[in-house]
Amino acid sequence: MFPKGHPYYADVMGSHADVQAAKLDDVRDFFKRYYTPNNASLAIVGDIDIDNAKKLVEKYFGSIPRGPDVPSVQVQTPPITQERRAVMTDRVELPRVYLSWLTAPIFKPGDAEADVAAQILGSGKASRLYRSLVYDKKIAQDVSAGQQSLTLGSVFQVTATAKPGHTAEELETALNAQLDSLAKFGPTPEELDAAKNKITSSLIISLENLGGFS
């Protein structure tokens, strides 16, 4: 989805070759540059006394020196102007189809709308894609849709796995029919309300546990 040279082109964790090539000085320099107070966030969760917590933070962390300024990544994500296809063959029993689009960066206009569309299309057994491909047509054994919201450009992806005896071409035709229908007629008020409620409840649930906000 992203071109060579883009921060999202390869695995952000790096490759095995990257790890093998790294020298001790490289690791130290990376740590000194990025693992600094001015490039970090401290989260304190629980029934705390705010004033006392601030004093403890200052006591235990205040002496750590500021590191060098870390400039934000400035990169333009070029749009995809024509269809791209890739076929991968492996020793698997069932074909799977992925449909992906570059979408708006996180918190930008279009990002929230894509989240809602993903909920309506492929979140749960009551979603449009599940009802159409799994229940009605019985050509897929699973289907999903999601918006991966990222800073430099997001990815909207629909995935479906065929049932035995059915093909990737059947899945693609059925997926496109549902996508076209949503684009042409839009969601129903009930679908829209349900999607918004599910997104809101998922966010609240994620905040119930330590680390759910990260």
UniProtKB/TrEMBL annotation:
<dbReference type="InterPro" id="IPR007863">
    <property type="entry name" value="Peptidase_M16_C"/>
</dbReference>
<dbReference type="InterPro" id="IPR050626">
    <property type="entry name" value="Peptidase_M16"/>
</dbReference>
<dbReference type="InterPro" id="IPR011249">
    <property type="entry name" value="Metalloenz_LuxS/M16"/>
</dbReference>
<protein>
    <submittedName>
        <fullName>Insulinase family protein</fullName>
    </submittedName>
</protein>
<feature type="domain" description="Peptidase M16 C-terminal">
    <location>
        <begin position="24"/>
        <end position="198"/>
    </location>
</feature>
<dbReference type="Pfam" id="PF05193">
    <property type="entry name" value="Peptidase_M16_C"/>
</dbReference>
<dbReference type="GO" id="GO:0046872">
    <property type="term" value="F:metal ion binding"/>
</dbReference>
